[in-house]
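Note to self: user wants both folds in one dump. Writing first protein now.
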Amino acid sequence: MGRVSRVLLTALVSLLAACASTPEDVWPEREVSIFQMRLREPFPLVYNYRLMDGPPKGRLILRLHVDTAGDVRGVRLVQSSGQPNLDEGAMQSVWKASFHPWRVDGQAVPVSVILPLQR
């Protein structure tokens, strides 16, 4: 993939991330690590690497808006892996995640979950 194509693909992923995410003012203030959350069931990380020389590798960080039911309501790319296919695949995959609700004093509350991923 040429440099120009890669730059355009990265710009497209950033644009899609902005469109797919929750507006900044409705993101939960409470921030927790993914290691503090409990998944209801594992979800696969799916990405398209047919255009590349094998599976993409890299480290990225996502921020998830998880509501009081434990469902993902927003996804934001905090740090790119430098591999647009990996970034996009990770962002699409986490929409399938479902967590046990985060509780404070017995009440379920929405949270922002920080999710580092490495492939």
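First done. Writing the second protein, which came from a different request thread.
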Amino acid sequence: GPGPGAGACVSVKVFDSKLIRQQREEIRYVAVQASHIMCQLDEVRRALAAAGQQWNSATQQVRDKMTKLEEVLRDHGSAGKPQEELLVLLACGAASPGLHHFLCSTLCEEG
């Protein structure tokens, strides 16, 4: 009958070291290039992560400013949305009292 370890799979690979020796410079070159590429990919991952964090921070600041603008407009009796008020300002150069107040006070704050 089968002995101990029956059913175990054993794999043996034999390489011709002469062939490897003949190609050692090419193998070394490929290994070095692969190492450089892996390092560059790590740097790209870190840069993308940092850019993503900065993007999230910037978009949050824009959302916060738009919320503040909406509050200021409401406090000044304007029924317009912030986007509409900004579009009128861009198109005509005219700012409603609420938008004028927001631009003069809120955007002049430090930060």
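Dump finished. Worth passing along: The CA atoms of residues 13 and 23 lie 18 Å apart.
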